[in-house]
Amino acid sequence: DAIIDKMNRLPDQYTTLAVRKKGKVIGLIQWRRREKGVVWLSNIIVRPRYRRKGVGKFMIANMTTFFDSDTIFRAYSWEDGFYKALGWKRKRDLMELSPYGRKSKLE
Question: DSSP state, 52?
Fold first, then answer.
């Protein structure tokens, strides 16, 4: 956690985490902090046979634990359903997860 915490404090640095099952990578998530208080989800990849089994949800939930509670998370996506099921909202051409009570600059 200390290494990820240090990486998250560096602007424009990518952080990648893998989820493994029996030593085999079944999912990857990648993000970067582009500005203070805003994190961009760059990639989320789950092996086809593990999709719709909570792996993506697990990775996003774990990613959010590395940041302050007032952090805004954003992702460009054509797949609204996945993000909406996790509480993200469509804002123009991207999906966003904003903490309760914090206004997005896009509103």
Answer: T
pLDDT at 104: 43
Q: List the one residue out of 44, 75, 40 whose CA is nearest residue 58.
A: 44
User: Taking the model in full, what pTM does it have?
Assistant: 0.76
User: By the 8 A CB rule, do 63 and 17 touch?
Assistant: yes
Q: What angle is formed at CA 37 by the lines to CA 34 and CA 38, rounded to 5 degrees?
A: 45
Tell me the helices (H) and strands (E) count for the chain, helix number first. 3, 6
Residues 6+ apart with CB under 8 A from 100: none
pLDDT per 10-residue tile (average), the chain, 107 residues:
61 83 94 86 94 93 86 84 87 76 43
Give the pLDDT confidence score for residue 23 in this predicted structure: 93
Find out whether 25 and 19 touch, Cβ atoms under 8 Å: yes
- Distance (Å, rounded) from C-alpha 65 to C-alpha 31? 13
**Strand 72-75 to 38-46 pairing:** parallel
